[in-house]
Design goal:
Rossmann fold; 466 residues; 16 helices; four-stranded parallel beta sheet; binds zinc ion; alpha/beta; 15% strand; four-stranded antiparallel beta sheet; elongated
């Protein structure tokens, strides 16, 4: 490990080193998409944050386990206008598909979009609807411990029983009370206006519902993340990500639920990403400025250029989107790939000049994901007079593990095997045809040591640069 990876913790408001609580694997939970509609590129920026943290940690030698939930029982962002109809159900009647089909359709679209912007697949995408028993168990514990109460089939969290309420977002009970507007109707069954629902009673028209100790109903939105994070990562894990808009109430309520249930801290570092704005407005469905990742491709822009564009702004800051900036990023990515294709990769170790660039790149990435600086270092490297081209290639190819811009694309396409490689491939196929697998494996190892990916196909061995 060359650098300690440090992240800004929204909870402590300090930059902290990521140290896995189990001493081995860094465990990351990211709030994932709600799958009743397409995900716009503004949301993609938040989802790229979890991926970038994983890449940065792996780059410095950490083992990482990353999971991202899929919200397939829709949440109500505005409980006051809650008509009891789930957003999944509304989409269902709009599109003539079942709730499961809607969830499936938009989950697939989300994963395709994620692939296009270079988000490597998470280790697991747990579904909310498959964790109802775990949610019920936590709610049960919260009632037992006096943190929650039931009123006619709906269970509320009593926020006054959790002294740390507000520690993440700053929305403490005092401040929430001071900010209450008189005209807001308060649900009369709540003990305190700030209490939130863990479980809701199902109305007569509700289709998405489950049996529970409190009757048929459905979970509140926040409880799913307590249930899925602790089930898959344990009661202590390292990093939790989300967008700035998740801080309150979603993550504040998750802390109250998880810590209320287990009696200790659960997440070490909370990381929140800034919004994407378009013409000064937050990119959101209501703003009518939705862009899907596939829209970018249709406009002839490489979706990975969107990654480079995002790297131009620190992840915590709001970012303004413009087509001009995206097109500039697109040209830059293409230019970098072309330059690399002109350079032959250097074999062996790199010199002092290149090492200096490597140190600067790594320290930028490890220093709370300072990608604007990391990209600046990459640009300087490209035009550095004192670093041999082969070393530039080697560095950029390594850095691409973090950048994820597929910088070797052109080099790969232009690549042709040398006579030595062709001979080794033929030798391996002959050995394998004679069932001499030990020799086949030995040649495979040699090819891999030459920086090649070795694939067994029905037509025999195929190789390409890694
Ligand atoms: Zn969540």
């Amino acid at each position: 490990m060359l650098c300690d990876v440090r992240l800004f913790n929204s909870l402590t408001r300090e930059i902290e080193e990521v140290v896995p609580v189990d001493g081995k694997t860094v465990k990351i939970y990211s709030c994932g998409p709600t799958v009743y509609r397409y995900i716009h590129i503004g949301n993609m920026r938040s989802f790229m944050l979890g991926d970038l943290i994983r890449r940065a940690l792996r780059f410095e030698g950490h083992d990482v386990r990353w999971i991202m939930n899929i919200t397939d029982v829709g949440h109500m962002t505005d409980e006051l206008t809650d008509t009891g109809r789930d957003k999944m159900e509304l989409a269902e009647s709009d599109e003539g598909l079942s709730a499961a089909e809607i969830a499936d359709k938009y989950t697939k679209a989300f994963l395709e979009d994620s692939d296009l912007v270079g988000i490597e697949r998470a280790d697991l995408y747990p579904l909310a609807t498959e964790h109802i028993p775990e949610m019920i168990a936590i709610i049960d514990t919260l009632i037992e411990k006096g943190h929650a109460y039931e009123v006619e089939g709906t269970v509320y969290y009593d926020v006054t029983t959790f002294p740390g309420y507000g520690k993440l977002s700053g929305n403490t009970l005092d401040r929430l009370r001071a900010g209450h507007r008189q005209e807001l109707a308060v649900d009369p069954s709540k003990r305190h206006p700030e209490d939130f629902a863990l479980w809701k009673v199902a109305g007569p028209h509700r289709a998405l519902k489950w049996p529970s100790p409190w009757g048929d109903g459905y979970p509140g939105w926040h409880i799913e993340c307590s249930a899925m994070s602790m089930k898959h990562l344990g009661e202590r894990f390292d990093v939790h990500t989300g967008g700035n808009d998740n801080k309150f109430p979603h993550h504040e309520d998750e802390i109250a639920q998880s810590e209320g249930a287990v009696g200790h801290r659960v997440t070490s570092i909370w990381v929140h990403g800034g919004f994407l704005q378009m013409g000064g407005q937050k990119m959101a469905k209501s703003a009518q400025n939705i862009k899907r990742v596939t829209d970018l491709a249709e406009q002839g822009v490489d979706p990975l250029a969107y990654r480079l564009l995002c790297f131009g702004t620190r992840y915590r800051s709001e970012m303004d989107f413009s087509w001009e900036a995206l097109e500039a990023a697109d040209s830059r990515v293409k230019q970098l790939r072309k330059r690399m294709a002109d350079w032959a990769p250097a074999a062996g170790s790199i010199g002092a000049g290149a090492k200096g660039f490597d140190r600067r790149f790594r320290s930028a990435v490890a220093g709370d994901l300072d990608m604007p600086t990391a990209v600046k270092v990459a640009n300087e490297l490209v035009s550095a007079p004192d670093v041999p081209d082969g070393e530039k290639y080697a560095l950029l190819a390594t850095w691409d593990q973090v950048l994820g811009l597929d910088l070797e694309r052109d080099a790969r396409e232009r690549w042709e095997p040398t006579d030595e490689i062709t001979a080794l491939v033929a030798e391996r196929d002959t050995a394998r045809a004679a069932r001499d697998f030990a020799k086949g494996d030995e040649i495979r190892d040699r090819l891999q040591a030459m920086g090649l990916e070795v694939m067994d196909t029905p037509e025999g061995t195929r190789v390409r640069p890694r």
